[in-house]
């Protein structure tokens, strides 16, 4: 028989009591390598342990054989569950994740983990849930593919995760596209796109940039942008409300990044007549990988769109990042498949489709 245990919050990732955490990360890494055939999304127990802050509650679960010792070896952990619950906003919402090592699938472990995760979320009065599936490639049109209700993007119908969620009351709401940019970017292309976007932006806009934490002077401005970003991308049917951000939360975000060993490069765009920041773009290096970088948020406030500020932000931030990390080989990013404007910018820069994801929602009365 198999039982579900909660991963305890330990002081370190190396002490004996962190055995379940190490097993949790080992399962996650096995699944990440299977989907992405490489180490781009491989994590360390140290970084995972540090990935929390006071703005959300993270509960991690593992499935182990009943007779497993209290501190089992990593490979004795057979599957994982995750519940993430925001605490400042979205207090009836939770993110759920379930993963089982392939040799142990099809005997109910996923269901046990899913139900345990759901119960924990319900105990915290959560009623709207989101979960995602990852796929190394978008399937061709046809009976083997499920198209999102948005009409944009497909996921494989026979994927075990898609089938699993589909038979447990989850609805596919959206698909997301993973795109990959191989470095170095053609310097002529980058310069041309940068020059063109500078010219289109004109003298009303200028960029400001920083490495790592948000400078004190921009805390308020970035709090506003992080809030707009939180529900400002195409959300399809996903019910997620705008997050509440203030200066203290910006600081907590940066402290979390520091604990996780994240290095980041940010470019923001300032509207010169008002002095306001009206957009930003962030690239991150998340350890342990040193050659793979993550293109994270890019936002231009709706009232400032149409001036090529998105391209300006991305080209400027790419220049900053590759100057700091000349050894980087690839940048990965995720976008809603219907996010035409962002995808067009990425494609112009040389990003190419490299996998996809299904975004599912389940609502309990
Ligand atoms: C999705 C996933 C977690 C399922 O794990 P699992 O341990 O195989 O889950 P279960 O065994 O409980 O259920 C899988 C199937 O086996 C069936 N099953 C369960 N117990 C069974 C048993 N004793 N004998 C035969 N079949 C069984 C279930 O009915 C289910 O069928 P369905 O997919 O048609 O609903 C696993 O495939 C996985 O890790 N995928 C990658 C991550 C992912 O996509 N997660 C989902 C989104 S968070």
From TrEMBL:
Residues 2-196 form the N-acetyltransferase domain. Transmembrane segments: none annotated. This is GNAT family N-acetyltransferase. Gene3D superfamilies: 3.40.630.30. PROSITE patterns: GNAT (PS51186).
């Amino acid at each position: 028989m198999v039982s579900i245990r909660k991963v305890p919050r330990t002081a370190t990732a190396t002490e004996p009591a962190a055995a379940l955490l190490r097993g949790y990360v080992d399962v996650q890494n096995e699944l990440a390598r299977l989907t992405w055939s490489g180490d781009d999304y491989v994590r360390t127990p140290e970084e995972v342990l540090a990935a929390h802050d006071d703005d959300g509650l993270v509960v991690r679960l593992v499935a182990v054989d009943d007779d497993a010792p209290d501190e089992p070896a990593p490979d004795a952990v057979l599957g994982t569950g995750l519940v993430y619950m925001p605490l400042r906003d979205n207090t009836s919402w939770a993110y759920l994740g379930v993963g089982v090592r392939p040799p142990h699938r099809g005997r109910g472990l996923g269901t046990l983990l899913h139900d345990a995760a759901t119960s924990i979320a319900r105990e915290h009065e959560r009623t709207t849930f989101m979960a995602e599936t990852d796929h190394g490639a978008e399937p061709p049109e046809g009976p083997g593919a499920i198209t999102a209700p948005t009409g944009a993007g497909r996921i494989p119908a026979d994927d075990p995760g898609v089938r699993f969620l589909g038979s447990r009351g989850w609805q596919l709401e959206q698909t997301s596209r993973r795109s990959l940019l191989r470095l170095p970017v053609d310097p002529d292309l980058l310069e041309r796109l940068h020059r063109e976007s500078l010219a289109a932006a004109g003298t009303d806009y200028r960029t400001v940039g920083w490495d790592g934490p948000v400078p004190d002077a921009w805390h308020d401005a970035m709090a506003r942008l992080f809030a707009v970003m939180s529900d400002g991308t195409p959300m399809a049917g996903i019910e997620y409300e705008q997050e509440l951000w203030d200066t203290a939360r910006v600081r907590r975000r940066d402290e979390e990044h520091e604990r996780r060993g994240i290095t980041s490069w940010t470019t923001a765009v300032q509207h010169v007549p008002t002095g306001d920041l009206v957009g930003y773009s962030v690239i991150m290096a998340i350890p342990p990988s040193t050659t793979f970088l993550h293109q994270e948020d890019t936002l231009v406030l709706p009232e400032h769109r149409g001036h090529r500020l998105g391209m300006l932000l991305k080209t400027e931030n790419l220049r900053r990042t590759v100057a700091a990390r000349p050894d980087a080989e690839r940048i990965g990013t995720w976008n809603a498949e219907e996010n035409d404007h962002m995808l067009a910018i990425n494609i112009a820069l040389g990003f190419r489709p490299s996998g996809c994801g299904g975004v599912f929602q389940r609502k309990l009365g």
